[in-house]
Design brief:
With 478 residues, the protein is of the alpha/beta class. The protein is built from 19 helices and 11 strands. Strand 6 (306-312) and strand 7 (318-319) form a beta hairpin. Helix 2 packs parallel to helix 19 (464-476), helix 9 (191-203) crosses helix 10 and helix 14 packs parallel to helix 16 (357-363).
Length: 478
C-alpha cells in the first residue's frame, strides 16, 4: 500500500550520469551534460553481455567527488581517519570513526531532481552546515530549531522521512547531552554528519548507517568504509628524519591549538562510565576548522618526506586493523581499479596500508586496469614529488607487511601488479618522466585540461569528462 507521504522513495531514480561533466576535483555545478557520458558508457559496456564495467574507486572526500559522474557502476572505498572539520568535534566528544568523507560522498551521489521536490529538500537538509561566524548560543539555537522540527529546512520533506531523520538527530543530541561536560560546539556543524553519527551510534554499525542514509536519499550508493569499526581510527606518519606526526590534520593541514592538553584531560568526568576508557588520544583542539580553499592557498612543506604511514590506538601504539571484508571482496570482482586524485598519504594510502589489500590487488583475476590519477600539483604531503615518487610510494606501502612478520625473504610484487596506468593532465605541475614510467611497466595516459576551476593558478584539475577520456583511451588500447 502506498503512503501519501512516500514521495522520496517513489521518485524515479536518475543515474549519476546525469551529473555535469564540468565538475572539478574540488567542487561542482549542476549543469546537465550527458552526451560525452553516454558515449563513454556505451564504449565501456561489455560487448558480449551488455553489462557495464565495474569500477572500484579508492579516494578521499573532496578529492573524488568531482569525478563520480565518470563511473556508473562503481564501488567507492573511503578512509575513516580524517580528524578535521566538524568530524573532529564529533570524534572529540563521542568518539567513533570519522564520517565526514563518507557523508560528503553520500550527499554527492544523491540523484539530481527538480528544485523544490521532496528529495531536493532532503539533500538541502543533509548538506546544510550550521553557521560559523556566530556565537555558540546562536548556533545552538538554530540546531534546537532543527531537532524540534521547527526549522524552515524541513519544508518540503514528507512527514515520514522527516521523522526518521529527526529521530536520529535527536538520538545524536541525546548522546551529546550525556557528555555535556565536554561542551560540544555546534559551530560549522554538518547536519548530514550529525545524522550519520547518530545512526552509526544507534546501530553500532557504520555500514548500517550508510545504508540508511543512501536509502532515505534514494542514491543506491555503494560506499564502503575501508575499516569497519565503532572506535576512533587514527593515522600517524613517520618522516625520513625520524619525526612522527599524529593525526591527519597534523600530516596534511595543521591548525593552531585552541586549548592545552591539560585542559582537555581536566574535562574528563571521573564519575562518568564513558570517559577515560582509553579509547581516545587526548585532543588539544576544539572543532578543527579548515576549508578546501584555505588548503589550496598554500602550505608549509614538511621538514622531511613521509616514509611510512601507520595506524595507532588510543594509547599511541601501532596497530594493524583488518580492512573491510567487502573491500577485499570487491577487489576480486571489479574490473577497473582507480586510485583517485586527492591527498596521497592521507586519503589513498590509508586504504592500502592494511593487511591483505596488496595480495587482493595483485592476485585479482578480473582487474583489467589499475590506474592512478596523478594530481595536477603537489601538496604538503608530496612536496617535490615526481610521478615516479607517487608510484614508488604506493608500491612501497603495498609491499610492506601488516603486521611485520620478521621474515627476510618476503616475496615482493612488481609495480605493474598494483598500477598498470598513470593518467596525468596536460600542464600538470608534477614532473612526469614517460620513459622512466614505461621502464617500470606503467603506461602513461595524457589527457587534456578541460576544467575552468582554477584559471588563475594554471593548475589543471580533473573533471568527469577528463576521467572518461582517460578510461576510454586505456580500454581502447587493450
Amino acid at each position: 500500500m502506498d503512503s501519501s507521504n512516500s514521495s522520496v522513495f517513489d521518485l524515479p531514480l536518475q543515474p549519476d550520469s546525469a551529473r555535469t561533466t564540468h565538475e572539478t576535483c574540488d567542487g561542482y555545478d549542476l549543469t546537465l551534460v550527458t552526451d560525452n557520458h553516454d558515449h563513454f558508457q556505451n564504449h565501456v559496456s561489455d560487448a558480449s553481455s551488455g553489462s557495464k564495467l565495474s569500477f572500484l574507486v579508492i579516494s578521499g572526500g573532496s578529492g573524488g567527488n568531482s569525478i563520480c559522474a565518470a563511473f556508473e557502476n562503481a564501488c567507492y572505498v573511503l578512509p575513516v581517519s580524517d580528524d578535521g572539520g566538524s568530524s573532529s568535534e564529533i570524534i572529540r566528544v563521542l568518539g567513533g570513526p570519522s564520517i565526514g568523507d563518507i557523508r560528503s560522498r553520500l550527499v554527492r551521489l544523491i540523484p539530481l531532481v527538480p528544485p523544490g521536490s521532496p528529495l531536493d529538500a532532503v539533500r538541502t537538509l543533509l548538506s546544510y552546515r550550521l553557521p560559523l561566524n556566530v556565537s555558540e548560543n546562536e548556533a545552538r539555537a538554530e540546531w534546537r530549531g532543527i531537532i524540534e522540527g521547527q526549522s524552515p529546512l524541513w519544508s518540503g520533506i514528507p512527514n515520514d522521512r522527516k521523522e526518521v531523520i529527526r529521530g536520529f538527530l535527536v538520538y545524536f543530541e541525546n548522546e551529546v547531552l550525556k557528555r555535556a561536560h565536554k561542551h560540544f560546539s555546534f559551530l560549522n556543524g554538518s547536519i548530514g554528519n550529525y545524522f550519520l553519527a547518530g545512526a552509526q551510534g544507534f546501530f553500532r554499525s557504520l555500514p548500517s548507517a550508510i545504508f540508511l542514509f543512501s536509502t532515505i536519499t534514494n542514491s543506491q550508493a555503494n560506499i564502503l568504509p575501508v575499516i569497519v569499526t565503532n572506535h576512533i581510527t587514527t593515522i600517524a606518519a613517520e618522516l625520513e628524519n625520524g619525526a612522527k606526526l599524529l593525526g591527519q590534520c597534523e600530516i596534511s593541514h595543521p591548525v593552531a591549538s585552541a586549548i592545552s592538553s591539560d585542559s582537555e584531560l581536566l574535562s574528563l568526568d571521573p564519575l562518568s562510565p564513558i570517559d577515560g576508557i582509553g579509547e581516545i588520544i587526548p585532543q588539544n583542539r576544539f572543532n578543527i576548522m579548515y576549508s578546501q580553499q584555505a588548503k589550496e592557498g598554500g602550505y608549509e612543506p614538511l621538514h622531511s618526506r613521509i616514509c611510512r604511514l601507520y595506524y595507532i590506538n588510543g594509547y599511541g601504539h601501532e596497530v594493524y586493523p583488518k580492512p573491510n571484508p567487502q573491500f577485499i571482496k570487491n577487489l576480486s570482482t571489479s574490473e577497473v581499479l582507480v586510485y583517485s586524485c586527492g591527498s596521497l598519504w592521507t586519503s589513498i594510502i590509508p586504504c592500502l596500508a592494511l593487511r591483505g589489500v596488496a595480495s587482493a590487488i595483485a592476485g585479482s583475476r578480473l582487474l583489467r586496469v589499475k590506474a592512478l590519477l596523478l594530481n595536477g600539483s603537489n601538496d604538503r604531503e608530496t612536496d617535490g614529488y615526481t610521478a615516479v615518487d607517487y608510484i614508488r610510494a604506493i608500491t612501497s606501502v603495498l609491499n610492506s607487511q601488516y603486521p611485520p612478520n620478521g621474515l627476510e625473504n618476503v616475496p615482493l610484487h612488481p609495480i605493474s601488479a598494483f598500477i598498470t596506468h598513470l593518467v596525468y593532465l596536460e600542464g600538470t605541475k608534477v614532473a612526469v618522466d614517460v620513459e622512466a614510467m614505461t621502464t617500470l611497466g606503467v603506461k602513461c595516459i595524457l589527457v587534456g585540461k578541460r576544467s575552468e576551476r582554477a584559471p588563475n593558478s594554471g593548475i589543471p584539475q580533473y573533471d568527469a569528462a577528463v576521467v572518461q577520456q582517460a578510461i576510454e583511451e586505456i580500454l581502447s588500447g587493450q
